[in-house]
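Worked problem 6 (solution included).
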Amino acid sequence: MRSTHSGSPRAHTPGELALLQQIRTRANRPSSNAVTLGIGDDCAILRLRAGEEVAVTTDLSVAGRHFCLDWHPPASIGHRTLARGLSDLAAMGARPLAAFLSLGLPASLTMRSKSLRTRSPSNLTATSSNLSWIDAFLGGLVALADTHHTPLAGGDLAESPLPLADIVLIGAVQRGKALLRSAARPGQLLYVTGSLGGSAAALSALADLAGKPRPSRSSSFKLRIPKRLQAQLAPHLFPQPRVAQGLFLVRHGLAAAAIDLSDGLSTDLTHICQESDVAAEVDASLLPIHPGATLHRALHGGEDYELLFTAPAATLIPRSIAGVPITRIGRILPIRRNRPSVTLLTPEGPQPLEPQGWQHFS
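Solution. The predicted structure is:
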């Protein structure tokens, strides 16, 4: 991990070298034998197994767009930063090898504060008398990294007026076996892991709790989350990437095409249809809608980080994989004139399902 620096040091901040050492101490854990050289040199060195090829993904998280310092606990921001990349690897059926984190932060977020509250999936109300925002952020990121045996092997640091985090994930997948968006074929069936709409419903509840019309980009964390709301908000604050499920699908040769549901079912299914040159049909009555969510949020909400995949009709798909339910929701069709790319079957009849999920610059 490198530091990008200019200007003179400030007496009230820990300084770049101290912050680098803090990150290195938190990150250097023997959780994987894939990293033969990690933080400390100009480059990391990774080791692949025989017959594997590399999968690489990157995700940028920007304050005011992907997270809100007034709403999201710092541990949640760290968790979500890594979860986005892990979910991409899961969609390819790739085994995580290492993570690389680049951070741009205001100096204030590196300072220790007696009032900062930390959050984690198991405890959203714990307090610390000597903790900085970056401490709690790293706590959330490293906890998820440990769960998936994904060491933090490098990155970059820079002071920035706008908080942002860029995560690069390196994974490995058996040569020629990666799940692609372009492998869907007419006659295949559509499946999803878990449930849909939970993150969007939780985000709405979080906004109601905050009582603020717009997220902030720069202020310190202030929102206190009551214990009674922890489970309700968890799908948004601490989404769980389906790495084990993606690996299972590849290992057993069950899935053909796949994508992770980060932008919403309607948008991500459209991606599969476009890349595979096919159409699709979704049965609204089959959708596994998260308790408290609506059909609209299940279709368009996004940030569920579930897997959407196709499989031949004759393939026997388990009802659950590693404890996560698998639900058939539709099928892949050939493209026909005067038929929508994606059709939603409803009690009122077939309807076009337009991509209304998340799209930047729209």
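Discussion: The chain has two domains: 2-174, 181-194+242-352.
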